[in-house]
Amino acid sequence: MPRGFSAARERGIPSRRYAAMSYTLKASEPDLAQGLRRVAADQLDRALASLGAEGADPHEAVHDARKRCKKLRGLLRLFRGALPDYDTENAALRDAARHLSDLRDKTAMIECYDRLMDRYGETLNRSAFGPLRAGMTRDRNAATEAGDLSDRMTAMAEALRLVRGRVDGWELTDEGFPAIRKGLLKTYGRARDAMAEAQATRDPELMHEWRKRVKYHWYHMRLLSDAQSEPLAARETAADQLSDLLGEHHDLVELAPRLEAAPLGDTPTRVLRGIAREEMARLEEEVFAIGHSLFARKPKKFGKDVEEAVTTWYAAA
């Protein structure tokens, strides 16, 4: 199959017009390597803009930059079978994001607490839990005001600039669907296997590992969304929802030690511990229900379904 997903463009078939999306491979591009470079450059440029914005909220800047690193790693994973630089660039992006991981984690704890209060607060004396929220806010503020935050943001930006400088040289060793087949199926298979392991044990670390795999699968569906396939669009929506719910589950796991150390007293601690466990159980029921639907197909069958969807669309581009 020549260059992109099809050779239809070379045969003079008119292109269909759809709104452009920056985190999407487009049928209008001459080959997948160009799409890979375009998406990567866009995400890196946006991350660098966030980190360098004057007067920006550091929490928003860090969240945006780290989110774009994850999207970039999802992009690289899709092309891992045809991108010789995969290992080098994936490691570079992973290490860049680590410069600011702790600050984002502190924000996530506050968001987790707020979700619990939004869901259960009407039945609680919320003031009894105030010291926990106040303590988490102080911790985050201290991290924000730490003298090394600017240096760490600069270090992350410098690491991303190095990757950005190499993007224009990225080439693929394969074309068409074969360029993404390995990455697509490997990510899907890992997510499917991780679900089975997580369900068998309900181990928090395995649940979190499943979440990471689901998120990469979601990114792959987003990258292929220009195919305008209803099954792929439904899969993208379900993977997005599943990733969010698993993220909430992980936040509750991380909240537990903070709860035990908070100066709340026995009764508020016991009440909040019970609420957190109830919420985790509710989330587990929901995520496995979604997961069994999302990952019902075996990887090879899933791959055939996706190949048919994207090649049908790109043949008409």
TrEMBL record:
<feature type="domain" description="CHAD">
    <location>
        <begin position="29"/>
        <end position="302"/>
    </location>
</feature>
<protein>
    <submittedName>
        <fullName>CHAD domain-containing protein</fullName>
    </submittedName>
</protein>
<dbReference type="InterPro" id="IPR038186">
    <property type="entry name" value="CHAD_dom_sf"/>
</dbReference>
<dbReference type="InterPro" id="IPR007899">
    <property type="entry name" value="CHAD_dom"/>
</dbReference>
<dbReference type="Pfam" id="PF05235">
    <property type="entry name" value="CHAD"/>
</dbReference>
